[in-house]
């Protein structure tokens, strides 16, 4: 081995003038067995450079993890459809609840309101007809009332009789 | 890009990304996490990937950016690089390679690199460990050529000085 050449290369190396190939040559030399004593002090550094490259590595488990993740990423469509389905189902459920609630509200509230309507709103368009109808109704009440009064007069007979009896009683 | 192409072309870069992320985060799990995120990002952008001049450099840049983001977001106790250099006990604790810890010299070099200022550390990692060209380092670190060279020069210089010191005085 030409030590002069190595020494030259080393000098160039410290000056940062070596090419990558020359640096590779240096690494090879110092990782070999033929290092003369006066250059031994540089051995640890160059062996470290190689050592670091050989030992500091990621294992196969890492590869598997990455590949698994990537494969999971490569099939995003299936996941999306499933997700979309769940979203749709959620929306559908909400719509169903709202519609059902709306139906019951209509049953309970709006329909009842319609039942109440005849008492509150006008049923006749023509005022004359309304007047006639009212008159008819009032006459019916009046007729019934009259009949009631005749019945009441019959009751007053007992009242008169009772009064007379009381008068006689007090005279005695 | 098919999954096969991804496995062939992108996945093998993982170790480089991991080592790079580790230089920032100093935590195996965090670095692992970042690399996974980067690879998935590549997969998600696989349609745009062929426009890229250098996919590997792009990945490295993304790794760097994400690592820096992670450092910020987690409010890492990110000690100043100067302190790191002196705080040896801390360095030992963060050493990722259990087998390196048993190997004193390797641990020393690892600590030595870890003690460099951030940019120098990145440049030396990219150039001397991973063997990237200056042009690629410029792309990855988004620095200009001059800054890359200056940082590499300084990094190599302090490594050289430290190696000589370790050898001469047994300093660590």
What is the second-level CATH architecture of the domain at 1-78 in chain B?
Orthogonal Bundle
Please provide the count of β strands of chain A: 0
CATH topology of the domain at 1-78 in chain B: Rna Polymerase Sigma Factor, Chain: A
| Proportion of strand residues of chain B | under 5%
Number of strands of chain B: 0
Distance between the termini of chain B: 49 Å
Radius of gyration of chain B: 17 Å
* Helical run tally of chain B: 11
Task: Profile the largest sheet of chain B.
Answer: none
Describe the secondary structure blueprint for this structure.
The complex is a heterodimer of chains A (172) and B (172).
Chain A: H1 3-14, H2 20-30, H3 43-55, H4 60-74, H5 76-120, H6 127-171
Helix pairs in contact in A: 1-2, 2-3
Chain B: H1 3-10, H2 14-25, H3 28-44, H4 55-73, H5 81-86, H6 88-94, H7 98-102, H8 104-114, H9 118-129, H10 134-141, H11 145-169
């Amino acid at each position: 081995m030409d030590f002069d050449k190595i020494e030259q290369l080393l000098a160039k190396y410290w000056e940062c003038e070596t090419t990558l190939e020359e640096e590779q040559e240096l690494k090879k030399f110092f990782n070999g067995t033929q290092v003369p004593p006066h250059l031994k002090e540089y051995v640890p550094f160059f062996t470290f450079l190689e050592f670091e490259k050989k030992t500091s590595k990621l294992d196969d488990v890492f590869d598997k993890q990455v590949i698994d993740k990537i494969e999971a990423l490569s099939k995003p469509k299936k996941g999306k459809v499933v997700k979309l389905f769940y979203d749709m189902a959620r929306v559908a459920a909400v719509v169903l609840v709202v519609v059902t609630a709306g139906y019951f509200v209509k049953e309970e509230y709006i329909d009842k309101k319609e039942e109440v309507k005849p008492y509150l709103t006008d049923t006749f368009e023509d005022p004359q007809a309304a007047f006639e109808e009212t008159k008819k109704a009032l006459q019916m009440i009046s007729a019934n009332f009259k009949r009631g009064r005749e019945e009441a007069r019959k009751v007053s007979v007992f009242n008169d009789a009772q009064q007379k009896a009381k008068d006689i009683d007090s005279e005695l | 890009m098919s999954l096969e192409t991804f496995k062939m072309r992108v996945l093998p870069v993982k170790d480089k990304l991991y080592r790079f992320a580790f230089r920032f985060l100093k935590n195996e799990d965090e670095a692992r996490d970042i690399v996974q995120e980067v690879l998935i990002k590549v997969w998600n952008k696989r349609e745009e990937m062929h426009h890229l001049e250098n996919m590997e450099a792009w990945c490295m840049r993304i790794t760097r950016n994400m690592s820096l983001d992670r450092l910020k977001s987690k409010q890492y106790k990110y000690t100043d690089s100067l302190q790191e250099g002196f705080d040896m006990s801390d360095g030992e604790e963060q050493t990722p390679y259990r087998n390196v810890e048993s190997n004193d010299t390797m641990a020393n070099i690892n600590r030595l690199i870890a003690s460099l200022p951030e940019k120098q550390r990145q440049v030396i990692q990219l150039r001397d460990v991973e063997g990237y060209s200056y042009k690629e380092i410029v792309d990855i670190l988004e620095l200009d050529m001059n800054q890359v060279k200056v940082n590499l020069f300084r990094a190599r210089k302090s490594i050289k000085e430290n190696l000589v010191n370790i050898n001469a005085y047994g300093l660590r």
